[in-house]
């Protein structure tokens, strides 16, 4: 595929998704076939051991605008697949979404109108109207505690807008994690972990180039870097369905690992890993494009 006039790169990270992969890719093909702008679809593998990678290769052979990435080193996790996809993106903008299509690609129509004003547009399952991001520690703490108590009392947060309510445990983990981000990283995002995010590609590549967290905690790191560099961000409500069948995620294990990543990110902030000096040293040209301009 040539790089000329690619407007949007669509990244789908996957790990052992052979049971659900075909359906999602066909939805993507249906969407891209009706767009006036040029698209690039990147199927990003994360050390799959089933037939998922073979499916990705099959589609890449059949369709010019589909390609795939596979890990070349010891990095493992969703964050590794996302990083590979971002660094391979050639569109002006990019979006990444889950392989189970819990949020369908058609929901991007709700995000696209904000591209002129914002550099990061996040899908959210916990708001009813667009929410521009402003750090507000005490308000985030209040809402985090409120959501957590609602899960304990009612079984779910009253702010939860998704179709098909998650079980009490998954809601507790989700809202508890969100509260931890607020307390430990001073993040005021309502829904850090919704897997449907649209970026200006240069900004995403800037962040991915500084990335050192490769598990599910990568989102925590991305948003910590975004907050440090004051990238304009907004959360937009999207339709999300809890697709449990065929899931490869262990919510308890992955959440524990993500919690550990919070401290890793916190240490990286304290030790200056994300500061301008290190960023300029690692990605000088991209630093000039994103930060200076």
Helix content: 40-55%
Count the beta strands.
Answer: 8
CA-based gyration radius: 18 Å
How would you describe the shape?
globular
Using the coordinates shown, work out and report the CATH topology.
Answer: Spore Coat Polysaccharide Biosynthesis Protein SpsA, Chain A
CATH class category name: Alpha Beta
Overall structural class, as computed from helix and strand content, comes to alpha/beta
Share of β-strand residues: 5-15%
Order of helices and strands: EHEHEHEEEHHEHHEHHH
Q: Which parts are unreliable, with pLDDT below 50 for 5 consecutive residues or more?
A: none
The CATH fourth-level homologous superfamily: Spore Coat Polysaccharide Biosynthesis Protein SpsA, Chain A
Q: What does the average pLDDT come to? A: 89
How many distinct domains?
Answer: 1
**Tally of DSSP helical segments:** 10
What CATH architecture label applies? Alpha-Beta Complex
Strand order in the largest sheet: 3-2-1-4-7-5-8-6
Instruction: Give the biggest beta sheet.
Output: 8 strands, mixed
What distance separates the N and C termini?
29 Å
In short:
The protein is of the alpha/beta class and 293 residues long. It has helices spanning 21-32, 52-62, 78-87, 137-154, 168-185, 201-210, 218-228, 251-271, 276-282, 284-292, and strands spanning 6-14, 38-45, 66-69, 93-96, 120-124, 131-132, 197-200, 233-237. The chain has one domain: Alpha-Beta Complex (Spore Coat Polysaccharide Biosynthesis Protein SpsA, Chain A), CATH 3.90.550.10.
Notes on the protein architecture:
The chain is an alpha/beta fold and about 290 residues long. It has a single domain, classed as Spore Coat Polysaccharide Biosynthesis Protein SpsA, Chain A, CATH 3.90.550.10. Helices cover about 45% and strands about 15% of the residues. The chain has 10 helices and 8 strands. An 8-stranded mixed beta sheet has the order 3-2-1-4-7-5-8-6. Strand 2, helix 2 and strand 3 form a beta-alpha-beta unit.
């Amino acid at each position: 595929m040539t790089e000329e006039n690619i407007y949007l790169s669509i990244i789908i990270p996957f790990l052992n998704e052979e049971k659900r992969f075909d359906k999602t890719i066909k939805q993507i093909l249906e969407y891209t076939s009706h767009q006036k702008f040029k698209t690039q679809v990147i199927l990003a593998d994360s050390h799959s051991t089933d037939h998922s990678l073979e499916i990705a290769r099959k589609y890449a052979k059949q369709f010019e605008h589909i390609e795939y990435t596979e890990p070349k080193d010891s990095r493992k996790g969703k964050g590794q697949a996302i990083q590979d996809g971002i660094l391979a993106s050639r569109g002006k903008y990019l979006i990444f979404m889950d392989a189970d299509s819990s949020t369908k690609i058609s929901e991007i129509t709700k995000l696209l109108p904000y591209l002129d004003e914002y550099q990061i547009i996040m899908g959210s399952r916990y708001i009813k109207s667009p929410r521009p991001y402003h750090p507000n520690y005490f308000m985030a703490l209040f809402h985090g505690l409120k959501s957590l108590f609602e899960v304990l009392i009612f079984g779910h947060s009253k702010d939860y807008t998704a179709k098909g309510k998650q079980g009490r445990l998954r809601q507790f983990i989700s809202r508890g994690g969100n509260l931890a981000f607020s307390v430990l990283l001073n993040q005021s995002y309502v829904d850090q972990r919704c897997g449907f995010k649209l970026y200006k590609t240069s900004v995403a590549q800037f962040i991915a180039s500084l990335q050192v967290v490769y598990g599910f905690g990568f989102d925590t790191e991305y948003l910590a870097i975004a907050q440090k560099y004051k990238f304009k961000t907004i959360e937009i409500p999207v339709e999300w369905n809890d697709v449990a069948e065929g899931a490869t995620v262990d919510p308890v294990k992955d959440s524990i690992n993500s919690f550990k990543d919070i401290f890793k990110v916190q240490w990286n902030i304290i030790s200056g890993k994300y500061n301008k000096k290190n960023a300029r040293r690692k990605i000088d040209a991209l630093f000039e494009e994103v930060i200076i301009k």
